[in-house]
Every structure is written in structure tokens, then in C-alpha cells.
Amino acid sequence: MGKGLVRVVTLVDRKSGLLRMRRVSNGEAAMVMRAIIHALHPLQARVHTLTWDNGCEFADHAVIGIALRARSYVADLYSSWQRGTNENTNGLIRRYLPKRCDLGAYSDAQIQSIEDKLNQRPRKRLGFRTAQHVFDISFNRGALRS
Predict the structure, then answer these.
(1) pTM
(2) Beta-carbon contacts of residue 78 (< 8 Å; ≥ 6 apart)
(3) Measuring CA to CA, which of 36, 60, 80, 138 is 20 to 30 A from 17?
(4) What domains lie within the chain, and their CATH numbers?
(5) Tens of pLDDT, residues 76-87
């Protein structure tokens, strides 16, 4: 959240750290639901569980779970540690989108550019590989097992 109505929805794969970011014109649950389904639909085969915080923007989490055929979990109140990977990634995003900035001033292309930069950033926890590389390796390995 920033100034104004525009929000950025962030979705992070816990294992690889792969990030998906989508800009929404407001924080209404229906708008957020559509953005999440649109962002994760191409990866649907890889989405098994989703963990939400308690914001009202995630009120349609059950619909999202059905649409993506994934189990939904809601973190306990004031337990951000249950969503540690997402909270850490949001900290990385703050380098590009500071608190209280007007998110409406950023285009979808700029949001995509931030997502791409973070997905191509080597991470110590991944043995200095990128999130995109780790995700691609696990995706290919899973596809070979079928």
C-alpha cells in the first residue's frame, strides 16, 4: 500500500523466491482476486498452497483456491513470521517502491521491471543463484518426473 487507491499485490514462491507482482487500481477483494488468478494461472500446475494475511483484500481467498486448485491457509493475526518469505521480499520491493509513495505513478511495465530485477537477483539463500533459475530448475525436474 502507498498513497492513493492503487495497490501492488505480491506473490512469492517459498522455495525459489520467485516473485509475481500485479498492480491493482484499488484494494477491493474482487480486484485483488482477479489479479492473483491472472498472475498465477500460467503457473497453476506448480501452485499447491497459498498463505494469506488477514487483510480484507483477501476475502475471496477461497475462490482463488478453487480457481487455482490450491489449498488456502490464513496466517494468524499479528504473525507475520508465518509468511516470512513474503515479508522479506516486500522489504526488497521497498528499495524500488518506498513506503507512502504514490503507486499510481508506476505503470504496469515499471512494476514488471521491478519483478524481473528481483527474480534475476542472485540470493545468498539460493547459493547465489537467481529465483528464476531455481524455479526453472525445479519446474523442469518436476516435468521430467511425469
Answers:
(1) 0.86
(2) none
(3) 60
(4) 7-145 (3.30.420.10)
(5) 888 888 888 888
